[in-house]
Amino acid sequence: MGRFLSVALAASLFTSPAYASGGSTGTNPWVALAYLIAGVCFILALRGLSNPATSRKGNRYGMAGMLIAVVTTLVTHSIASLPEILAAIAIGGAIGFVIARRIAMTAMPQLVAAFHSLVGLAAVLVAGAAYANPGAFDLLVNVPGTEGWPAERFMIDPVSRIEMALGAAIGAITFSGSVIAFAKLNGNMSGAPIILPARHWINLGTLAAIIGLSVWFAFFITTPLPGWLFPTIILLAFIIGFLLIIPIGGADMPVVVSMLNSYSGWAAAAMGFTLGNTAMIITGALVGASGAILSYIMCRAMNRSFISVIAGGFGAADTGGDGEAREQRPYKQGSADDAAFMLQQAEKVIIIPGYGMAVAQAQHALREMGDVLKEKGVEVKYAIHPVAGRMPGHMNVLLAEANVPYDEVFELEDINSEFAQADVAFIIGANDVVNPAAKTDKSSPIYGMPVFEVDKAKQVFFIKRSMGGVGYAGVDNDVFYMDQTMMLLSDAKKMVEEIVKAMD
């Protein structure tokens, strides 16, 4: 739902907070009712999106709520240029439609990061517009003691300055942080942590400067505002967003995406106060709070503190994985025929999908394999790790796209105890989330992260392209070399299709 925020923020650039029907005497009750209905729709959207089975309905609620909010804003506010707004909506809608039709599911995480960057940039632009023309946003107040300065007697309301500084700073952090997250996810930058010397002191100093300048901007200006002050706050916020994300390793990227989603919500909420727009406040607060809660839940699932992730937590140390596999050890390699035979003899199979499945677009073939096994009387379950893939819920989305029944998909804490009773653990494209080094190797960058206990299964099939690669966290995996593991070295989709063919 965070992507809807950019629509409201962009539209607000062309509107004034003075209600056409309410003016300065207050908000029209019909406007308040419309925004209330929109807020209820957003709450229902979040409720729907919390479960794969109701996610489509939740998305429709969110779309309906944003439609109500935007139309209400356009109808009841003084519009600078309605044709410009409609043209912007048409252009943006066309671009969004084309992207939605063409985007591959493997690119969905970086698309989400890109959308977050647009929300942040929209917040900065709205704050900049309010700063450049505060009269149009009804933000000017009379400053006592300046009656002798006719041109300077009106200044931006201090409360509005607080909101502008918060919205612009959080928006700038969201923008630059999302750009770095996009570059890491898209392969334009290395997924490995980029460690700067004295990075914590640099970050603290930059944050202190942003806070100090924002306080000065908000409270201690009674003469005309220095022209450099507000742009400097924005510039420093852009810099800190960059500095906060580059030391975060790839294994933490789902938390980063969730965190940036939360930031975009708080930026929108702050600008909602500046613009006097109730719908933006409600939407921003919902997105900000839900994103923060999701980030906390994911950090707990990884046994990490939220602060350690923000500071470049695991994956940021000099010890641990270096992005290269360790010295080659003996392993067992099998074929599709071997896997097909043993899968058909099993009573219980647990499938663990990962990013490699997304890259190969193997989810449909995987569902077909599961259907064939169920027809043969085999119990099939899917195990989803909270950080599998590159964004929250990445694997859930892919399996839902392939029409895998929701009641066959389980989270880590619900299924981990069942591996001891499983005949086969079928790993397709996952790596870090099944790596026992998270439990045994204190020098590993993923140490402490809960992982699937696939080593307890009677047989493990592990699909990956080759033995030369490692997971996104850059560490080798002892599961490759276990006695009960059979490596299936091939493209994930091709291998699964061959297994299905061999079971016919």
UniProtKB/TrEMBL annotation:
Keywords: Cell inner membrane, Cell membrane, Membrane, NAD, NADP, Oxidoreductase, Signal, Translocase, Transmembrane, Transmembrane helix. It is an enzyme of class 7 (translocase). Belongs to the PNT beta subunit family. It is a multi-pass membrane protein. It comes from Paraurantiacibacter namhicola. It catalyses: NAD(+) + NADPH + H(+)(in) = NADH + NADP(+) + H(+)(out). One of its GO terms (cellular component) is plasma membrane. Residues 32-501 form the NADP transhydrogenase beta-like domain. Residues 1-20 form the signal peptide. It holds the Pfam family PNTB. Complex of an alpha and a beta chain; in Rhodospirillum, the alpha chain seems to be made of two subunits. It comes from the Bacteria. The chain crosses the membrane at residues 30-49, 61-79, 85-104, 111-132, 164-183, 204-222, 228-248, 255-273, 279-299. It is found in: Cell inner membrane. This is NAD(P) transhydrogenase subunit beta. The keyword Iron-sulfur does not apply. SUPFAM superfamilies: DHS-like NAD/FAD-binding domain (SSF52467). Its EC number is 7.1.1.1. Its main location: membrane. The transhydrogenation between NADH and NADP is coupled to respiration and ATP hydrolysis and functions as a proton pump across the membrane. GO terms for molecular function: NADP binding; oxidoreductase activity; proton-translocating NAD(P)+ transhydrogenase activity.
